[in-house]
Specification:
Elements lengths: L2 H16 L6 H7 L6 H11 L5 E6 L2 E6 L4 H4 L11 H13 L2 E2 H8 L5 H9 L3 E6 L7 E5 L1 H6 L11 H5 L37
Antiparallel strand pairs: 1-2, 3-5, 4-5
Length: 206
């Protein structure tokens, strides 16, 4: 193996290890030695980590180290999991993911129930949804869509990788999506019914 390839592998490994978000091809192109084949380098690194406790995977349009699926269950004995999203938030997130860009009123129509502002705030705070402009209808309501963090959280590289809708919604015995290593965004067992607020009027444009 040439010195350039070895250096490229070491640099790629280091930046993915240090990054808190998936490392995109653009970042790698700017980091690796000139004329490096990013796909070849990341392919070699993926193979090198294939049998280890952490794997290199493509999620959210980049590369990230994730706990190997076969050892992830054992870590629950020693790793404290953050709080999970309640069921109503998972339902809302699923609707946004599959119908985006979508307004709050449209979400309520699909769910058949009013949508609490607290639910939208929770998804916003976790970086899973973001405004995608305004719909050109009276009142110009906000359009909502998912974020790259949503893809990374659920182990997806692209929205085309979304599973069937029912797989995203509920699976109390396991991850909400397959395969989201140690995903924390699973519905709480006891959170099937969040108090709902009366439908709120869409925000008016400034």
């Amino acid at each position: 193996m040439s010195d350039d390839i070895t250096q490229a592998l070491r640099l790629a490994e280091a930046v993915v290890f240090a990054a808190t978000q998936p490392v995109t091809p653009r970042v790698l192109v700017n980091l690796l030695p000139e004329n490096s084949d990013v796909d070849a380098v990341m392919g070699a690194l993926t193979t090198a980590y294939a049998e280890r406790g952490v794997n290199l995977v493509q999620v959210g349009g980049g590369w990230q180290f994730r706990t190997a699926p076969d050892v992830a269950p054992h870590l629950r004995k020693v790793v404290e999991l953050p709080r999970r999203l309640p069921r109503v938030a998972m339902e809302t997130l699923a609707i946004i993911a599959y119908h985006q860009p979508v307004t709050r009123t449209e979400i309520e129509e699909i769910r058949g129930a009013a949508l609490s502002q607290n639910t939208l705030d929770l998804l916003l705070e976790n970086g899973l949804i973001t405004p995608k402009g305004r719909k050109e209808t009276p009142g110009r309501p906000t359009l909502w869509g998912t974020t790259p963090a949503f893809l990374a959280q659920f182990g997806l590289n692209d929205l085309r990788d979304l599973p069937k809708r029912e797989e995203l919604l509920i699976d109390p015995a396991g991850p909400a999506l397959a395969p989201p290593p140690a995903s924390v965004f699973q519905p709480e067992d006891q959170a099937a019914a969040e108090p709902e607020e009366a439908p709120e009027t869409e925000d008016e444009a400034p």
